Every structure is written in structure tokens, then in C-alpha cells.
């Protein structure tokens, strides 16, 4: 309903009033736990435009109160961390407003002028003491364990020397408790004490909204995050995952993080450096999200925990954990020959990856309108689309096609029926979730047909191979960056005339595709 339906002029002066019925399920508890059928707020103006503005503010307050009352009625175990945080802030706001209306909020204490009497000072203190006593009485009545007190009375313990009345645990989100804190000059905690579970749930939810992955890729990402989050919870709970998930965020320590690193090495001895580092990235991101959302001041215990390259790695010494290596000339020739025997989609994708240096998803996720083939320099337009995102901003680029690449693509397209501009070029794989089977089919050629067991050699290695070729050919770095989709300066054709830079890039790709020896032998990388 519009705001205008809730505001009406009242009385002789025509002052507007905001009026709205309390929802049926909230009537019994709307006002300090007492029934209320309707909310009325005087807007103090006869001007309709001003009344609409003030009415909108009153309506926001109404909606917020309804939402938070429902939160308070909801089972505690069913509330999300963000709902608990929102509820906490609303309770503090409500308690503050109630004391303000009573005129006893500490910040309302009058600044007495010179010559003020003792009576003037005492008047404020008496009023505060009166309200404080009423709040304490209400709390005592609310939290006394009536059943236990009755039992104590019947058994003769009540009233004996040293007897203390039994109380049930207090609810820290009770508005009366917050009021007593405020009256006593304390600052109520504006946040809840978040747990590791809270951090993980918030990170997954907010990251999904920010990243805007496809459903398949979001599910895949979430499984990865939950796997490493579960591992940490099991470690924190000494084998009990649920116990570990209830660990308070402010209990985390650097020692725990280092212990988890040792735990992973023991439980997952075959994890690669990249796998471990990716897991640490997830944990650090979830922790940071919790610190930010719950307004905490803490250092991230996972900071700097990734395994970093040693000087030996940087100097080029070969180690088992290098993520990927290039094809040797002999391996690439075998791979190319087998690709040419495959079905058209796999054949075309695999060969285009060799000749363009594009990533698997960049080729597999192409749409028809991203093939610019009838130009002086035909090229692939690599950009985000409905099938897949790109790895980085710099990945968006134009990749020229060599003669072989253009021929294989045209041969493939002649047999295709769906030429709609936004249709996938490769329908078997150009879909949400299609990149995994594509990678697996290409990997099977390497593992099962060429029988290369070195796990550093993967279909993506065609990209590394092209990079090696361009280094050997002294291809200008700016052109290499343009082809590979790496960050670069805007001047990609400096010193090469006034023509289309794509011509020069195409020429460099042609040279690289014709190179048959780039100085690698089996096992050299």
C-alpha cells in the first residue's frame, strides 16, 4: 500500500496523522508485551507533501519494528547471524529511545548553570534512581525461578539465613537489561559474539551476491569453501565438527592457524601447494567477512599462512609441486594428432587452445556473436557472457586467428545448425557446468591415450606452451600480454606503425604456431 493510504488530516487544524493497523500476529506483543491494535503517529503538519515525507519515515519505523518483533518471536536456533545482529542493534535502539522518552538517557543530563542549587542536581539523580529501581524490580520479577522458589519455600529453605533467591539465566538481548546498562553508564555491546559457523554462512551468502556466478559454479565454489571450513571446524573441535563450528571468533589465534596448517599436511599429504593456498584464501576471506560484519577489531590469523615460493623455486629449479608445465615438442605433436581424430567439438576446441593460447573456458564458452570471422583480421572476442565469467578484467580481449585456426573453425561451423547470435558455438559444453566435462575429455587424451602421468601436464598447458614459444621468438611483451589476457599498458603497438595492432599480433601468433622446437625435453619443466 502507498504511504498516502496511511496518512489522514485530523481535527480543525487539519494536521496529518500516520495510522496503521498492527498485524494480527503481532497485536498481543506490539507495545512492551501488551496488546495494541493500531499505531498512531502525529506528523505535526498540515502540508501534505511534508506529511508524506514524515509518514514515510514513520512507515519505515513501523516495518522495522514488525520485522524485529517477529525475529524476537522466532526460535533462536533458526535465526541467521545477520538476523541476530540486526535484532541486537534494534534492541539497543529501542532501549535508548525508551530512556530518551523518560528523559533519563545519560546524555540528557542537564548542564547546570552557575548558581544552580543542590536541589536542581538532586532532581535529575532522583529521577534516574527511580527509573533504575523500576527496571531492576522488573528484571528480578522476570528472571526469578518461581518454581524453584516455591519448592524452596515448601522445603523450609526460603527465608533462612544466607538464602539466595534462585534466578534463571538472563537474556542479554532483553531491552530492560540494555536499559539498565545504559542507566549505569555502560556501553552495551552493539554486536553479537559471532562463531565460525556465522562467518562461513555470511561469507558464502555475500560472496555469492558479489561474484554472480552461474548456479553450477556457485555450487562448486560453495562445496570447496564448506570442505575447508569443515576441516577447520573438525580441527578446532578435536574431531567434533559441530563443536568446532561453535568456536567464537574472538577466540581464534595465530597458534590455532599454524596448528591447522600442520593438521592439513598430516591429513592430506598429497595436497598440492595450490590446493592448500586456495583453502587458506577461503578461510582468510570468511574470517575477514566476519570481522567486518560484526564490527570487530582483530588481526586475521590466516594472514601470511600461504606456502610461498623459496628462492630455489624463483630461480627456476624444477620441483614436484610446480602447478603446470609446458608440452614438449614431441608431446604437443602427439596431442595435436590425436585431437584431429576426435569428434568435431573436442577437436576444434583443443586445436584452438593450441593456436590461440586461450583458456579452456574462454574457448568452450564462446557464443556465435563472439566469432568475428569476416574481417581483414578475423578474431575471437573474449568477454564475459551468460555461459561463463572471465578470470580477470584483463582477460577481456580480441585474439586474432591464424590461418589454421580460421580453417578449423570454419570447417566446424559449416556443420552447425544453430547460428543464432547468442547461441553457444559448442553446445555440448557451452552451458552452466559444461567446462568440467570438457576439461576431463581433453585430460583423458593426455592421461589415457598419450599415457603421460605427470600431473603438471594438463590441457591448460597449451597456454604455457604458447607463452614459451613467444619468449623464444622474442615476441614483444605487450603483444604477449594482449594474446594471453594479462595486465598491460595501453600502448600495445608502440613502434609498429599506424596499422591495426591485431595484424601484428596475428603475425606473432602465426610465427609461434609454426615453431617446432622451443628447447624443451620431456621432464625439463
CATH class of the largest domain: Mainly Alpha
Give a short account of the largest sheet: 3 strands, antiparallel
In whole angstroms, the N-to-C terminal distance is 68 Å
User: How large, in whole angstroms, is the Cα Rg?
Assistant: 34 Å
The ordered string of helix (H) and strand (E) elements is EEEHHHHHHHHHHHHHHEEEHHHHH
Number of domains: 4
Output mean pLDDT. Answer: 87
- Structural category: mainly alpha
In the CATH hierarchy, the third-tier topology of the largest domain is known as hpI Integrase, Chain A
How much of the sequence lies in strands comes to: under 5%
Low-confidence stretches: 312-321, 491-499
- State the strand order across the main sheet: 1-2-3
* CATH second-level architecture of the largest domain: Orthogonal Bundle
Number of strands: 6
Number of helices: 19
Shape: elongated
Percent helix: 40-55%
Write a structural description:
The chain has 525 residues and is mostly helical. It folds into four domains: 3-73, no CATH class; 81-109 and 119-192, no CATH class; 196-308; 329-514, hpI Integrase, Chain A (Orthogonal Bundle), CATH 1.10.443. The protein contains 19 helices and six strands. It has helices at residues 48-73, 81-102, 118-143, 146-154, 175-183, 196-211, 215-236, 241-245, 254-267, 273-293, 311-314, 329-339, 344-356, 360-364, 403-414, 435-449, 461-472, 477-484, 501-514, and strands at residues 7-10, 15-21, 38-42, 371-372, 379-382, 397-400. It has a three-stranded antiparallel beta sheet with strand order 1-2-3, covered by helices on one side. Strands 4-5-6 form a three-stranded antiparallel beta sheet. Strand 1 (7-10) and strand 2 (15-21) form a beta hairpin. Helix 7 (215-236) crosses helix 9 (254-267). The two termini are 68 Å apart.
Amino acid at each position: 500500500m502507498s504511504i498516502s493510504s496511511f496518512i489522514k488530516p485530523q481535527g480543525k487544524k487539519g494536521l496529518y496523522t500516520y495510522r496503521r493497523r498492527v498485524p494480527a500476529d503481532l497485536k498481543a506483543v506490539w507495545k512492551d508485551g501488551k496488546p495494541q491494535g493500531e499505531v498512531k503517529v502525529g506528523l505535526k503538519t498540515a502540508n501534505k507533501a511534508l506529511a508524506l515525507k514524515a509518514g514515510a519515515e514513520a512507515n519505515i519505523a513501523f516495518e522495522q519494528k514488525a520485522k524485529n518483533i517477529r525475529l524476537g518471536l522466532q526460535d533462536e536456533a533458526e535465526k541467521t547471524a545477520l538476523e541476530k545482529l540486526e535484532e541486537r542493534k534494534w534492541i539497543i535502539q529501542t532501549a535508548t529511545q525508551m530512556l530518551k522518552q523518560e528523559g533519563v538517557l545519560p546524555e540528557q543530563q542537564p548542564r547546570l548553570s552557575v548558581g544552580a542549587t543542590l536541589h536542581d542536581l538532586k532532581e535529575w539523580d532522583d529521577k534516574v534512581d527511580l527509573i533504575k529501581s523500576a527496571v531492576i524490580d522488573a528484571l528480578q520479577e522476570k528472571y526469578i525461578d518461581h518454581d524453584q522458589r516455591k519448592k524452596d519455600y515448601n522445603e523450609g529453605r526460603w527465608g533462612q539465613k544466607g538464602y539466595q533467591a534462585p534466578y534463571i539465566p538472563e537474556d542479554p538481548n532483553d531491552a530492560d537489561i540494555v536499559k539498565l546498562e545504559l542507566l549505569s553508564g555502560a556501553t552495551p555491546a552493539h554486536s553479537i559474539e559471532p562463531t565460525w559457523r556465522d562467518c562461513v554462512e555470511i561469507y558464502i551468502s555475500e560472496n555469492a551476491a558479489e561474484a554472480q556466478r552461474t548456479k553450477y559454479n556457485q555450487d562448486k565454489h560453495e562445496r570447496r569453501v564448506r570442505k575447508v571450513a569443515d576441516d577447520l571446524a573438525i580441527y578446532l573441535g578435536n574431531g567434533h565438527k559441530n563443536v568446532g563450528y561453535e568456536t567464537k571468533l574472538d577466540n581464534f589465534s595465530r597458534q590455532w592457524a599454524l596448528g591447522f596448517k600442520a593438521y592439513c599436511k598430516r591429513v592430506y599429504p598429497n595436497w598440492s601447494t595450490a590446493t592448500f593456498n586456495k583453502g587458506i584464501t577461503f578461510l582468510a576471506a570468511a574470517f575477514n567477512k566476519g570481522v567486518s560484519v560484526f564490527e570487530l577489531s582483530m588481526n586475521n590469523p590466516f594472514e601470511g599462512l600461504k606456502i610461498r615460493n623459496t628462492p630455489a623455486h624463483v630461480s627456476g629449479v624444477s620441483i614436484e609441486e610446480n602447478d603446470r608445465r609446458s608440452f614438449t615438442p614431441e608431446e604437443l605433436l602427439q596431442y595435436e594428432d590425436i585431437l584431429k581424430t576426435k569428434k568435431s567439438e573436442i577437436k576444434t576446441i583443443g586445436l584452438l587452445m593450441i593456436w590461440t593460447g586461450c583458456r579452456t573456458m574462454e574457448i568452450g564458452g564462446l557464443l556465435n556473436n563472439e566469432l568475428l570471422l569476416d574481417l581483414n583480421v578475423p578474431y575471437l572476442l573474449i568477454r564475459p557472457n551468460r555461459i561463463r565469467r572471465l578470470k580477470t578484467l584483463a582477460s577481456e580481449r580480441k585474439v586474432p586467428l591464424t590461418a589454421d585456426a580460421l580453417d578449423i573453425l570454419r570447417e566446424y561451423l559449416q556443420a552447425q545448425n544453430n547460428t543464432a547470435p547468442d547461441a553457444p558455438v559448442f553446445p555440448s559444453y557451452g552451458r552452466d557446468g559444461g567446462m568440467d566435462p570438457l576439461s576431463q575429455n581433453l585430460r583423458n587424451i593426455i592421461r589415457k591415450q598419450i599415457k603421460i602421468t605427470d600431473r603438471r601436464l594438463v590441457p591448460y598447458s597449451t597456454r604455457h606452451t604458447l607463452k614459451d614459444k613467444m619468449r623464444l621468438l622474442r615476441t614483444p611483451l605487450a603483444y604477449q600480454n594482449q594474446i594471453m589476457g594479462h595486465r598491460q599498458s595501453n600502448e600495445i603497438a608502440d613502434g609498429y606503425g599506424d596499422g591495426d595492432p591485431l595484424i601484428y599480433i596475428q603475425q606473432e601468433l602465426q610465427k609461434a604456431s609454426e615453431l617446432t622446437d622451443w628447447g624443451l625435453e620431456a621432464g625439463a619443466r
